Amino acid sequence: MSGAAIADKVIGKGAAALLVLGDFKLVYADVISQSAYSLLQDANIETHYGKIVDHIENRSKTGWCPVESRCLNETTPEGCLKQIELFINQTNNEKNSYSMKTTEVKLYSLNYSEIRTYLFGLLFVAGNIILPQCCHLIPQGGLT
Known about the structure:
single chain; Cytidine Deaminase, domain 2; 3-stranded parallel sheet; elongated
């Protein structure tokens, strides 16, 4: 990506580190964290933004973005990359542990009164599909 330009809505320190390592030359962000801006400036990457903030919030807006907080004390893009890799591995391990869970399915048999209701509904729907089709078979749509 050497010499490329990129635009994004939100850029935190982790994304900024990847942009530095990718040798981008021009960056625009609607929102950028102060630490991301500093990292891009230290790498002589031309950076434009709509708003600069102290930190990037997580998706639920209850705290810091997990990657932003992991990269907070890192001073190099390589250090941030290591933190991003650890975060991805941790996230993948958590997802894999969830996939081992089983799901219980309950089957119920319907009694006669419920079946009669379903049959009535089926006939009602079928009648609303078949009756209009029969009217279209009559020339000029039937009697007027």
